[in-house]
Automatic annotation (TrEMBL):
It comes from Microbacterium candidum. The keyword Protease applies. Transmembrane segments: none annotated. GO terms for molecular function: peptidase activity. This is ATP-dependent Clp protease adapter protein ClpS. Involved in the modulation of the specificity of the ClpAP-mediated ATP-dependent protein degradation. The keyword Hydrolase applies. Binds to the N-terminal domain of the chaperone ClpA.
Amino acid sequence: MGMTPAISPDTREEVRISEQAATPWQTVVWNDPVNLMSYVVHVFRTYFGYSKQESTRLMLAVHHDGHAVVAQGAREQMELHAQAMHDYGLWATVRRAE
């Protein structure tokens, strides 16, 4: 009969933090009444390097659905993307991936 080693509270906390860090985050761009659709396509092409087709698809999702996930990854990187979108005049937020 094998014994299961006890896991210290510190180890459990480290595992929890590690699992949180591994959870993907998303940068979400939201629709607004200010920016032209062509400008949003331009921003996605310029900043993310997306193709014209992908940029247009994302812009249309923003326009018709009210928002679109434009990037997914580590929280820190998604926060940088959201700040960049703000710098371009777009409304963006960061959330945990669904």
